Amino acid sequence: MAETARKLSAEDVSYFCDPAAFDFETTAELPDLVSIIGQERAVRAIDFGVSIPNYGFNVYVMGPSGTGKSTTVRKFLHDLADKEPRPDDICYVNNFKDSRRPSVIRLPAGEGSQLRQDISELIRGLQSTIPAAFDSDDFNHRSSAIEREIDQARTQILQTLDESAKQNNFGLMQTATGFGLVPLLDGEAIEPEEYQQLPETTRSEYESRHSALQEDLNRAFREVREVEKSGEDKIAALAEELANSVVTQHLSDLNEKYAPYANVMSYLDELRADIVKNVREFLPPSTDGASSAAGANRNTPAGRAVDPLQSYRINVIVDHSLSTGAPVVFETNPSYLNLVGRIEQELRYGVMTTDFTHIRAGSLHRANGGYLVINARDLLEQPLAWEALERTIKNQEIRTEMIPETLPLAATTTTLEPQCVALSAKVILIGDWSTYSILYNMDEDFRKFFKVRADFNSHMERSSETMYQYAQFIASRVRADNLLPFDRAAVARVIEVGVRLVEDKNRVSTRFANIVEVIQEASFWARRSERSTVTAEDIDHTMEERRFRASHIQEEMQRSILEGTIKIETEGAAVGQVNGLSVMEIADYGFGMPSRISAKTFLGKGNVVGIDRESNLTGNIHNKGLLILQGYLGGRFGQKRQISLSASLTFEQNYDRIEGDSASSAELYALLSSLSRLPIRQDLAVTGSVDQEGRVQAIGAASTKIEGFFDICRHRGLTGAQGVLIPTANVPHLTLRHDVVDAIRSENFHVYAIDTIDEGIELLTGIPAGEPDDEGNYPSGSVNNLVDNRLREMLEGKERKTAEEEEVDSSEAVSLVSQQSENTPGL
Known about the structure:
five-stranded parallel sheet, alpha/beta, Rossmann fold, eight-stranded mixed sheet, Helicase, Ruva Protein, domain 3, 26 helices
């Protein structure tokens, strides 16, 4: 056996966290964890991304699930946002010049709702003040005087016309449609029958005078209309003067209050003009005189509200009156409308209509001046959502539309184009590496807008400091979830679980979602056992229950092996056959299982054929491992002669896809055994990849693979000879279950660490591998000598066969020439 091969001790294959390392009895003595642990790189990236004011420095947070990305981002942003000022309120108001394009007003936090209240009180006050003003004695006296002037002028015009008509034997008579001329005889109106009996000459005279008088009548009517129009204008001017006086008086306080805000002052001025113009809307229908004085109804634009006074309301879509700092918005359903806002519609008289009061804020509005956090995958799954977010960031403005043109649009009589809202917010996307890669490679603008990447790690260095922080984390979760306190032995066990999750004794997991599950379940089992604190026994029971709940398929596969349906040997020896180790992943549960790998070698052209590869059952990494085997054989045994070998390798009774190169060392052992005809111990299993120099390299899930072979051996009965070969590089990763560690401690099971194929083949065959001398020859009887001899025999056999074939071909050629000579004339 090579000197560097090492049988590992129980301490080598496990990690034990000593409870004595903690100076507390239970977590009840510990303060809550206030810092974020294990993610310094990510936290610094987030801090940089949200702090730098320059354009495009939004943040993409990525990392494995369960590492606390969302929790960390939430805590970090809330701590930061609480120290920042509240952003502006955002209001939409009616655009009195074009109601289809509502205007935006931004005010300091709390001022938006105050403006809404002030305008509401203004309108309520005007609803009582304006009717009272129009019903005042002064207004009635002045409007009555104007009406009297109109009546006098109208009477004078009609009287003059009547006198002129009478001089020409015509009278002025009022009819349902106005005034008309009737012929008179002796001062009395002539009836139509009497008029027809008059002499023709008399009728002709009447008709000639009627034509002239009709022109006078039309001219008089025009004068009357001008008088009435002048009077109406005077009354309207009087009403406007009164309305303007009343509204201006009511607005005086607001003008003084909002003087610092130019946009509000501009709105108030337009509001005053619109109220004055449409003052009749404030008058009750029963006030005929006042309504007449106020003029006709407004020229209602399309989309005018059913309640005309609704046009004076303030639609506060974002109200920060109750906020304590900058907003932090987590958008859990990032659809197009939820991001940029929506314009709702309502059914009025059978048609859909809307106005500025139906504009609703999106998460971009609510996060304006703060931070918006979105799950990247959820965002990409929503139609048009990514495009809308990208356009908003690019233009630095939020555009709220009726509905995207590519989606069905409900029949409506109105459309709105609200003024865009300027955006000043940091956007944080939370996702995984694959989503980041897709966005980075497929969308060039993504690189411009998300310049900061915050990587969350699945583990952190294990130290006394991080172990204490782990204990604080447990204490925090215990209080937050109302769990039982953990004693220090239980805390130590949880840390051992965290170490096992990352398969590295020097690191501990930062997938705190998994740790929280263990904490919660352990508290449950402790309560069921009527304990007041959680102990190490409860942690062990929790892990056993978790395995039991998920291990149904594992047990079925083990039963198939134990019953002999799947052939796996754990005793004896066999040529060209070795126990490889693999991991089966069933959703969130992984377990190790042995696989029987066999090899057959025969005369050929130096090719190693993987039956599973030829059957399309292997992935690229596994195929690479097979090609490395050819490189190893050529490098070691093909330096002085051609290798005339063909070999076939397969995972026996496997019908699932195979990936990874962790079985490449096992495949090589099977090849060497087949070539040397030396049997391989079946009580040992093998894992590890190999390079072309024969060095055994680290693989993943070493502990799980060892436990998978151990379980089969345990069910059949431990013999004290069984064990597993692993790469030496994997020793720091071993965190075996306690029952496996106990078996190793009692010498009932073994784990061997090896560095090279030579060390492994010695363990598997009990025969020295053999080191070459200066001429490249291996010691007689060594594994490499037997392999080299077998390859020489294959080459000699191939050469003999080639020579025999050439001799046959030569004799056939001579015979053919002889026959041609006999049959050719003249020869």
